[in-house]
């Protein structure tokens, strides 16, 4: 689909359903491209024609958001009105209804239900690792500072 057509269609979607920012549709399109490329790398050249499942797309979305926005991923998605996996399902089906994407008979909004929590998906990768206890080092025979040998 040409960019102008995509732009106009996204505008049309937003006019009828303004729950999600226009940027979310562009982001989802990019994440789908990233997902296709990743699946093609893993499964070979013939993957191009294969269908991407809701679960696969959500994983691609997660990876793409973390690469693009880093620790700001959750903030950016929330700003766009996206706070859970199901919201991406709504965006996908808005795009299907407006002929920006296609679906199989097996595809449904349920495919996007609670695959991961946003807190785990977009905050956890940036949390500090649990520090190793100082005491655990001493139990392995390390000398405590200030003690005589």
Topology readout:
Blueprint: H1 3-16, H2 22-43, H3 54-69, H4 73-79, H5 85-97, H6 118-122, H7 134-139
Helix pairs in contact: 2-3
Summed up, what is this model?
This protein is mostly helical. The protein has one domain (3-139).
How many domain units? 1
What's the oligomerization state?
single chain
* Alpha-carbon Rg, integer: 21 Å
Give helix % range.
Answer: 55-70%
Please trace the helix and strand order, writing H or E for each element. HHHHHHH
Give the end-to-end Cα distance, rounded to a whole number of Å.
75 Å
Number of beta-strand segments: 0
Average pLDDT value?
A: 88
Tell me, what's the shape? Answer: elongated
Contiguous runs where pLDDT drops below 50 for at least 5 residues = none
Global structural class: mainly alpha
Largest sheet: none
Beta content comes to: under 5%
Q: Quickly count the helices.
A: 7
